[in-house]
């Protein structure tokens, strides 16, 4: 478990970002004078678990799906919303820090909170756990895809934040033979890690090792992927390409050994494959390569300083 | 200034091509890119470089350079040593990186 | 030595991030091979190089090198200049060759990365 001094940028951001910066402003609301029966389609079509009740812009209550079911089972669908809604609605203020929202979600177990303006009491939005996670990731300028969020389960990341630990995954595609764009991946990863509050000396080692790996993919292959996984105890970077593979890893590990073409050497690169430097920067290094198939390099850096070891072998 | 004096004053290791140590050094050129050396180094220059590939000797010979100092503690390849002996190009090494070696040589040349 | 001193000693043009000219230069590093810069250079160094392409800026960025001087009157492209600005790297150019540039700075008291 991370101690106080290990507070990451994610945790810093939950103090810095306000609820109104991540909430959804486009909210479906009902009037207290609507009939309960009118809510039926709304709840079904929009698949929402509760609707804020608003009169003259001010939040006056909330109809949850439970309230609705109660009315339905008691045959009170002709009643007005104001007779059935919950009046003591727990809501958040727009200018509250995310950290208090996180606490409320954790304590009350709700899926969403209405957000009101502290002075006027007007409803300004609704915030869900997903909104908070998205807001945090966006702030870290992480290139996320809806698909990725889904894959790594937004709620999972969310729980990690509360549980004082984060596992974030960043994935980048590296284009082969594109010398101009080479380094964009390493640069993006470097910025993200700095934002997360990882110590600069470690970020520098990750950036240099990743850059060397990225240059190898650009120079020697048709392209590949670089994936970084960040946990509170370590950073793992995996670089995978689709060939041509390294025929003799032992030789490739020698400083200065390279099969780089002249155009690469003239650009100041390829005076070696950089594998030594990667090993020097990382705490652990594993290299597998099959000629004709591709190469997979995985490096790890401890965030709390431990000994180095590594292997390189053929599959 | 003769190359031998520079070797002594800067504590360089003579790796190969020692027969050319009495050559006059008229200037110096620092570069790690052989295409750049080929284009811009002048006759009589002492080359300061990280290059250990045999081609560095070929370029030095072609441009009639006074010799090559391989910096940063790098050791020239076998083939490079052989070629330097053959072409009578003094091949020297220094543990210093290019910056301070260039600095010391610059001062040395300026003093005389 | 500050970057302002470097500009004076090498008669440089400042092409990017001129706001940082008061920064102190910790050491000098003269190198054209980026693989070597990535292996040996230290943060806080001034990188002097004849290699003028976008990867020189990238290499500086990765190595936490905040100052770079292109020698032999090499002119960086607009793309390189904007990348340097974005990453907060000061870029200078001098018409001097690498040897003279290193020599003059060394003669004025700037040491190499190992303090010699």
Give a quick set of tags describing it.
heterotrimer; A: 315 residues; alpha+beta; CBS-domain; Heat Shock Protein 90; 2 domains; 6-stranded mixed β-sheet; 3-stranded mixed β-sheet; 14 helices; 11 strands; disordered N terminus; disordered C terminus; B: 112 residues; alpha/beta; Udp-n-acetylmuramoylalanyl-d-glutamate--2,6- Diaminopimelate Ligase, Chain: A, domain 1; 5-stranded mixed β-sheet; 5 helices; 42% helix
Account of the 3D structure:
The complex is a heterotrimer of chains A (315), B (112) and C (116). Chain A has 14 helices and 11 strands. Chain A has helices spanning 9-16, 19-22, 39-46, 65-73, 81-84, 98-108, 129-139, 146-151, 154-162, 184-195, 200-220, 249-252, 262-266, 275-281; strands at 50-55, 58-64, 92-93, 112-116, 123-128, 168-175, 223-230, 234-241, 284-290, 294-302, 309-314. In chain A, the strands form 3 sheets. A 6-stranded mixed beta sheet of chain A has the order 6-7-8-10-9-11, covered by helices on one side. Chain A has a 3-stranded mixed beta sheet with strand order 3-4-5. In chain A, strand 7 (223-230) and strand 8 form a beta hairpin. The longest helix of chain A has 21 residues, at 200-220. Chain A is elongated. The model of chain A is unreliable at 1-7, 143-165 and 306-315 (pLDDT under 50). With 112 residues, chain B is of the alpha/beta class. Chain B has helices spanning 3-10, 34-40, 55-62, 78-87, 98-111; strands spanning 13-16, 27-30, 45-49, 67-70, 91-93. In chain B, helix 3 (55-62) runs parallel beside helix 4 (78-87). By secondary structure, chain C is an alpha/beta fold. In chain C, 37% of the residues lie in helices and 18% in strands. Chain C has helices at residues 3-10, 34-40, 54-62, 78-86, 98-107, and strands at 13-16, 27-30, 45-49, 67-70, 90-93. Chain C has a 5-stranded mixed beta sheet with strand order 1-5-4-3-2, sandwiched between helices. Chain C is globular. The model of chain C has no long low-confidence stretch (mean pLDDT 95). The chains are: A alpha+beta (315), B alpha/beta (112), C alpha/beta (116). Chain B binds chain C through residues 27-33, 36, 40, 48, 50, 72, 96-100, 102-107, 110, and chain C through 27-33, 36, 40, 48, 50-51, 72, 97-100, 102-107, 110-114, 116.
